[in-house]
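Please go through the sequence line and token line underneath and see whether the fold suits the sequence. See right below:
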Amino acid sequence: MALLSLPNELITHIAWSLPSERDISKLARTCRQLHGTVNPVLYRHNRQFSSNTALSWAARKNMPATLQHANHAGTLISDSKLPLLHDAALRGHERVLRTMLDLCNLDSFNWDDDAIHIRRTPLHTAAERGQVEIATALLRAGAGVSPRYRANLTPLHNAASKGHTELVELLMEHGADQTIADATNGWTALATAVAKGHIDTANVLLQRGTDITTHLIWGWPMLYAVAHNCTSEAARLLLQYGATPHAGMESGSLPLHRAAYQGNLEVVKVLLEHGADVDAQCHDGNTALHYATHCWHVSIVKLLLEAGANVSLATEIGQQPLHMAQEHGASEIIDGLLDKGADMAAADGDGWSPLALAVYRKRFAVVKKLLERGADVRDTSSGWPLISLASENGDIETVSLLLTHGADISDVNDVGFTPLHGAAQYGHIDVVKLLLEHGADFRTVDSYGRTPTLMASAKGHVEVVEQLVQQGADLERASKDGYTPLLAAAEDGHLRVLEMLLDNGANIKVSNSTGQGPAMTAALGGHVDVLKRLLSTGEVDINQQDADGRTSLLLAAMRGQASAVQVLLSHEPCPVFNTKDRYGATPLIMAARNGHADILAHLLCLEDNPLQNMDTFGRTAFYWAARCGNPEARELLVPYAEVAGIDVLEDDAVNEQVQFKSRSCYCDVCGRSTTSPSQDQAQECHTCATGDISCFLICSSCASDGAKCRDADHVWTPHQCECEKQYEEEEDDDGEDVIGFENDGLELLF
């Protein structure tokens, strides 16, 4: 072959001129003579034009010879900027890794990142993969035994996390620091091994000697964390090396509490065997028996009772374990507690018995079991008869059960509410029917004179009202503040109930104790459909005035019910639009006081000189509009004020504005929403009250202006407005309380 006779320099030049590494490789493999000359060219070409892919290939395929060829061709492995050691460690290719370490110094290799706490070393990789031979080679080559990367993780963390016991031993022999905690959870290698359930690995670490109290899991002592969800073997190991069952959280929660809560039966056994106090209480008074009972861990409850747990210990809110037996119908738990002497009549901090709690929480199986064991069906520890609690909840199963056990259907609470009142108020038609079948008296009244029919009408429960009407309910029976079912339905806007009552002959001309008829209460609440229905009967006096001289139109204007105002103004005959109330306010003045611009626009169309009327304070609608906090209301009246010669320039008083708040209660003098806690102290008159559940309110402004209630001789008391507070509480209501853990341990939240 003529090619072989050419000088090596020329052959090398020819090889460099070939278009690809594949062609160079073919030339190198032609014969032994060419291989010796061309092969170095191949590796140099790979280094220069292919980013040293030959090195990566060698690391992946475990081909140390390829590395050696590349090295002989002048390739510096440490300059390749490739993660060769990582590749070898990841794949467990010991031969190629040893070759790399023989060819260059370990410190010369390029890692993932220059930042010391970010880079991951090959030893991390070997430790995570359990590659003992690889780790041995790296350590012998001088690799640091405790390098850290990212979340402060060391190779010891990696090995412990995977349970590579032999590798952990190797690292410890080379001086690995097991006190280093990761930055994410604060776990040491020991904590990691324990949390992951690698008992043999944890044992190796413990044998090396360490202060077990310095190793935390989730910030908890390790034994406490083990009680959460680890095995009994882990608990035994920790106890063997000095962990104590008497050490826990700042809240007083101990490992036994945690294990009982989690249902970790085997750990509970181990802890009791090692002297855990079965009656130890958290700072809130809960014992392991409380937790196990609440969470329905039957086997743990039995074990604790066998260990002598006290069934009468109470939490700081007075609840004994029997109070906790409310979930899943835990009849075995209840039997166990009662057999050990638990008191069925025990009262919690609010005075409630376990039976009352079970009825309230609708735990039928618990109620059934307690009644079978002799609990008192006439229990009133909650302040309510049990049957009233169940009826109000709509719990027909429990109502039926209580009736079977002799509950008195006529029992009442402290305000005279019968079970039928409660069921009717919340619309529980099935319970209503059951109570009526058992002879419940639908004519009975509570302390405020309210019948079940009135309660159902006020809440809009059509089926219940219909059922009671069929039974012969008296539709004209009024409460102490003068409300009949029809008035209650109108006030709360329940059209279907109202129509049913009208169809059954309810009197439309009734008035409550303030002199307001159905149309007036509907207008006040802005219930347009109800208002239209009432007006359509032709029996409504549209100009009827209440005890303070206010008509439907004035009441609607006061509350900002623009749609109701439109309905009233479009009615034939049209209402008198300038009627004055007791304090001289017309609908226009009342709308101006509360800044209802849309209503002002409607009313201004009805008068040529709307500012001619003054209230008893000598003030016009413009005066009030300037102080209502709504610039639009003021601007509507400016043209009329200019015509009337009223100064429209703003003064300091204009800045003392009161904005309308629909959720506040109202002054009964000026009609403004100015009695809330954000305003100055309001007053109230109970002598002027029109019923047992109301009072006459006077805002601070009206009191300062010399206004009186309905009788100048009455004595007032400060008014404590709860409107805004109640609104905020309703917004923030999160539902039932729960039992749960906080970061510092166990807490029962009831």
